[in-house]
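User: Sequence for Trk system potassium uptake protein TrkA below. Tokens please.
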Amino acid sequence: MHFVIMGCGRVGTTLAKAIEDRGHTLAIIDNNTESFRRLYKNFQGQKLTGEGYDRNTQLQAGIEDAYAFAAVADDDNANILAARMAREIYHVKKVVARISDPRRAEVYERLGIPTIGSVDRTTALLLARVLPLPPDVVYTEDTGYLSLCRVPVGPSWVGHEISALEAELGIRAAYVLRFSKVLMVEASTVLQENDELFYFVAESQREAVASRLARNSKE
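Assistant: Structure tokens for Trk system potassium uptake protein TrkA:
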């Protein structure tokens, strides 16, 4: 997938590395050539000097093929304008803008443009909002800490109560999909063959938990 980032500051460069580390392509735009010195040594993406809200610059960055656009420059007005262009002109699927003024941020949230502020967790918020979800993830909340996941229940868990599974894996079960019907679970609900479990888990534990749930034995 292709991503376009406007702003090559600390947030922009951190976001760029996270995107490239996941195997995606990207272009990063900044109106100051010197800003590109902040990029990490092995940066493979495209660097464009210009205004992120300039139509020609966005086109050169590949905005028409972009899966997501992140406007994270230090200028709220520039971020807003660039984000609206990406959303309204090029119909980019995921657009997010960094807005320092909370009053203005609320307005643009209502217009359908997610915003993040100048906070310590800015990069985590951006990643949660612009990256595609893994196949087992239904939803990840904005901070990127907690995910709602789904996984077919492995044979080793068939016949066990939900309470035992929650205690051993450190998850919170939400519901079970059984024979194409949603079953709201309780602590005493017993898992059956062919059940698909939906559950909340800390993102840092997601892969390990999914692996244990799907395996044939608990060992």
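The radius of gyration is 21 Å.
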